[in-house]
Amino acid sequence: YSGSASDANQAGIAACKLPRIAPMATISCRCGTVKLQFPTRSPRASQECCCRDCHGRIAHLANLGGPSMPDVTIASADNRTRPATFYYFVNRITVLSGGDRIKFYLMKEGSTNYNMASSCCNTFLMGHSPAFSGNTVGVPKELRTLSGVDEPNDGPLLRWFPADMPGEVVDGPAGSMPSAWLLDDGKPTGTEGWEIGFGKMCNDVWGADVLEAEDVGDKFVDLLEEYKARGKEVEIVSK
Length: 239
Prior knowledge:
Layout: H1 5-16, E1 26-28, E2 35-37, E3 45-49, H2 52-62, E4 84-90, E5 94-97, E6 102-108, E7 114-118, E8 124-128, E9 136-140, E10 146-147, E11 159-160, E12 179-182, E13 188-190, H3 194-206, H4 220-229, E14 235-238
Parallel strand pairs: 3-11, 6-14, 11-12
Antiparallel strand pairs: 1-2, 1-10, 2-5, 3-4, 4-9, 6-7, 7-8, 12-13
């Protein structure tokens, strides 16, 4: 460096004035071995779910020693009182650490809803469904695995399948909201106002191509295929 000390000081001051870029949202397992990063701080949307399947995938890992939903003393899909709040992040994932401790499982044979977890401490990390069109992944808020997240401004848009709860649904911090469920023919319906939340979910999570060209990281399916390529098998909980 051939400049003067004064020049160096001015350069240092200028560097300090540069805007600081906030870290992106990350998700970590309970023991801290696995840490993943999303390309944004904000999820595309959030919704609540009362269904047995969503709670069952978390309860399965809790019975192996992993974290469970709040207020649950016995890890079981039938022992639930509160909906699970899922944040839906863009399907771009950067593995910061612990990539060799990531595992995948299905709750039942023939299912296409894949779950990602940590093998070190059995923490549920995220889920992916064909209904997401490859655009997003679902991360449960209640397990407190996320950091650096900007909360969605409009809160959860819908509460799915309230009739699936064994007892009366206990409202979470967001209070009550429109509920939705599927009819026997597979078509959605719900309480007053459900169409608004459902439309937003279709646009921001399910039906739209929300991936941006500049989004960095691997897709969920890329990590799944890499897992299989290492000779690992996807666990099927109930065959």
